Amino acid sequence: MKKWIALLLCVLIAVTAAGCKGEGPSSSIPSQSSPAQTSSTEASQPQKNESELFSQAIQDARKQEVNDSLPVMTSKDDPGAELIFDMFQFNSEDMQAFALSISPVNIKAYGVAVIRPTAGKEEAVLESVNGFVQQQQKAFEQYLADQKVIADNAIVETLDSGVIVLVMCEDAQIVYDSIVENLK
Fold first, then answer.
1. Cα angle, residue 111 at apex, residues 1 and 142 outer, rounded to 5°
2. Pairing mode, if any, of strands 164-168 and 111-117?
3. d(CA 175, CA 173)
4. Radius of gyration of the CA atoms of the chain, in A
5. Which of 8, 13, 89, 163 has the largest CB neighbor count within 10 A?
6. Quick one: which of 30, 64, 61, 71 has its CA closest to 48?
7. Residue 117 pairs with which residues in a beta bridge?
8. Residues 141, 136: Cα–Cα separation, whole Å
9. How confident is the model at residue 143 (pLDDT cuts 50, 70, 90)?
10. What would the DSSP string read from start to end of the chain?
11. CB atoms closer than 10 angstroms to residue 22
């Protein structure tokens, strides 16, 4: 148990340090290039652009202090990605595009995610997202009652476009509505 807590604290420090580089959370999002500037690598990776749009939708829906403390992960190479994938019980191959932000330590019920599942993985990804919510609800049953309420009020929806949206945070409905509006 002590090793698990130590690992979580190390990941939290790494994620926080990564989020503190540059001018803020948006410094990790490259600027949109014109079609003439798009390289062949970018053209072959359309999910990267969609992941960036998902990330921006999440960041626009949250307060700046949350963006500063809980960065949005959009790549399997981001710090802490494997730990987050383990918490959701899926891997990057299950998702065509994604933006994930969770609290890596179990003192806060927090998870905001926008995911476009890989074709054929829709049910598995949705099941994993719902499993994450259930895990958070169970974790706070006897611990931090205010966080249990947040976990219990989590929103998990599949949009008409096939994109899965998870919002588990304070003011979940407001954040969810803002994300959905930003994705239009």
1. 50
2. antiparallel
3. 5
4. 16
5. 163
6. 30
7. 95
8. 9
9. confident
10. -HHHHHHHHHHHHHHHHHHHSTTSGGGGSPPPPPGGG--HHHHT-HHHHHHHHHHHHHHHHS-HHHHHHSPPB-STTSTTHHHHHHHHT--GGGEEEEEEEE-SSTTS--EEEEEEEPTT-HHHHHHHHHHHHHHHHHHTSSS-HHHHHHHHT-EEEE-TTS-EEEEESTTHHHHHHHHHHHH-
11. 10
Q: Tens digits of per-residue pLDDT, 150-173? A: 999 999 999 999 999 999 999 999
d(CA 150, CA 84): 19
State the Cα–Cα distance between residues 43 and 39, nearest whole angstrom: 6
Q: How is residue 113 written in tokens?
A: 């995610």
State how far the Cα of 152 lies from the Cα of 15, in Å rounded to an integer.
26
**154 in Cβ contact with 171 (< 8 Å):** no
For residue 170, which of 142, 184, 150 has the smallest C-alpha distance? 150
Distance separating alpha carbons of residues 107 and 146, to the nearest angstrom: 11
Burial letters 36-68, b for 16+ CB under 10 A, else e: eeeeeeeeeeeeebbbbbbbbbbbebbeeebbe
107-125 pLDDT, tens digit each: 889 999 999 999 999 999 9
